[in-house]
Design brief:
Blueprint: H1 3-19, H2 23-35, H3 39-63, H4 69-92, H5 97-134, H6 150-167, H7 174-182, H8 188-213, H9 218-238, H10 244-262, H11 267-291
Helix pairs in contact: 1-2, 1-9, 2-3, 2-10, 3-8, 3-9, 4-6, 4-8, 5-10, 6-7, 6-8, 10-11
Amino acid sequence: MDWGLIAAGFGVGTIVGLTGMGGGALMTPILVLFFGVPPLTAVSSDLVASAVMKPVGSAVHIRRGGVDWRLVGWLCLGSVPAAFCGVLVSKALGNGARVQDVVQIALGVALLLAVLGLVLRGYVRLREQSRRLRDGGSGDGTEGPVVVRPLATVVLGALGGLVVGMTSVGSGSLIIVALLALYPMLRPNKLVGTDLVQAVPLVTAAALGHILFGDFRFELTTALLIGSIPGAFLGAQLSSRAPGGLIRRALALVLLASALKLLHVSNEMVGVAVVAAFAAGTLGWMVLRRANGLPALGRLGLQQG
């Protein structure tokens, strides 16, 4: 048993439990960059591990009634077959170094989109915090009417499923941002619950495709699960006390660095990009907070925003 893989799984599982994000977006590049796992193998094994873990978080939201089942149905209509087809697309690219390089580049692009998703989710939380402040902190918890747009939702599911099937990234970061754009009246808790529940059949379809046609390795997935399951449990227990906003910002920087490395950017340029992103992000966030009527720093900048 590879204790390094178990430790990596534990770390990623903890972050997922704390923030609800970062599973495929973190685990797959870690396997590629630090453990030398071929990209297609990393995607295959990570997706199978995610298929085991996803139902756990979904069950909590189902019990709380935080799921829009209409959206889940339309999303899955597009995402489930597209996720399976994503595996076939990867397979059709060929074997050996060529397909591994294509998957690696696709993964790098998906991670850049995941960084954008993290930033947009943070901004949505900031707007919600500002709205509660204007309402005197009360808020009735109601939401406006959510009019389902079937065609747009199916297309969103298909595009998200294709990305997940090829890279394992997107089920918890890219789709939720697109959902927010399509359905701005959806409450944040129902947005997260809907995204988590639709991700279960999506990831399961992608995992099945990778078991059949990908490069799935049982021993690699087992090591990831041994570490990630207790890590996710610990992260969930700590989530109410940990500075989630700070963790999400650190996660965005890690994903940015990983994406650039996967895209063959030099170490020097990666360092410059991360430092620049940190400086610009910190100043930009302070400006956005002030523009929304909030203190520039809040609780020393560690709040959930």
